[in-house]
Amino acid sequence: MPPYPPEFVKFLGTAGSRFVVSKQLRASGGLWVRLAGQTVWVDPGPGALVKAYGSRPRLDPETVDVVLVSHKHIDHANDVNVIIEAMTHGGHRPRGTLLAPRDALYEDSPICEYILSYIGQAQPLEDNGAYSFGDLTVRVAARHDHPGETYGFLLEGGGARLGLLTDTRYFESLAEHYASAEVLIINCVLEENPDHRIYHLDWRDAENIIAAIRPRQAVLTHFGMRLLQAKPWEIVEGMSQRLGLEVLAARDGMALEVGPATAREG
Ligand SMILES: [Zn+2]
Asked: How much distance in Å is there from the Cα of 167 to the middle of ligand 1?
């Protein structure tokens, strides 16, 4: 099995609605990101730990530096507890950082209070906040329009800029917040969302955002049932042709190289 590239995103899950998650039509383990010498586990939903150990090559939770939670919904935060136990040798070796919205840390949340004492530090996310880990900066791109406190991120380091546009309803300035992203990963749950009634993006919203930003590469993930039935891998083909840039539909287990363009071409 080939090793992972030095900087990559591994999709430990691409499920994005209650039904797709609870029936495990797609997995829901979140994103494993290796960038600028740091390892970040983003939104570890149900099955995250199992998916990491089951990956080939295997991913070791004891190497995780940061657990990053966009919001406290179960498909984004369910496995935070067990991951922190795995990262910290059952709590005996406190290390690493948990970044999560305040309402996920200190209010009713899937994250257990006693688990918070195992991690090196738990830090609440602030709107416009930036957090440094060695050469990596985790920047809050925007507070999103989604139930509860929800933040999207820009991960910057080693010349790479990765946008993680998590659950949200479309709003006018949304694309601006991710304008610097070279690789943009978008949670695109819906096939359609008339009048933006539901607090998620549909694929037309995603296409508008990609058209506004024109990243080097865009990836749709976090699919709901109807969107899966509509075959996201076909939807992105049309998008790629219309926009003249690379748009992918994530698959469970997909590893995407995200290093800076110069490193990839050199
Ligand atoms: Zn959500």
From this structure: 5
Q: How far is CA 179 from CA 161, 207, 209, 215, 248, in A?
A: 10, 14, 9, 8, 19
Q: Report CA(244)–ligand 1 centroid distance (Å).
A: 30
DSSP β-ladder status, 66-68 and 217-221: unpaired
Yes or no: say if 260 and 160 are a contact pair by the CB < 8 Å rule: yes
Distance 265 CA to ligand 1 centre (A): 36
C-alpha 71 – ligand 1 centre gap (Å) = 7
Spatial CB neighbours of 110, under 8 Å, sequence gap ≥ 6 = 72, 74, 77, 78, 80, 81, 104
Whether the pLDDT of residue 260 is over 80: the answer is: no
Compute the distance from residue 241 Cα to the ligand 1 centre, in Å: 30
Mean pLDDT of 50-68: 97
Mean pLDDT estimate for the chain: 96
Over residues 109-143, the pLDDT tens digits come to 999 999 999 999 999 999 999 999 999 999 999 99
CA of 61 to the centre of ligand 1 (A): 24
13 CA from centroid of ligand 1 (Å): 15
Q: What is the CB neighbour count within 10 angstroms for residue 56? A: 8
pTM greater than 0.85: yes
- Binned at pLDDT 50, 70 and 90, residue 262 comes out as low
CATH of 8-257, one of 3.60.15.10, 1.10.10.10, 1.20.1250.20, 3.40.50.1820: 3.60.15.10
How far does residue 149's CA lie from ligand 1's centre (Å)? Answer: 10
CA of 194 to the centre of ligand 1 (A): 19
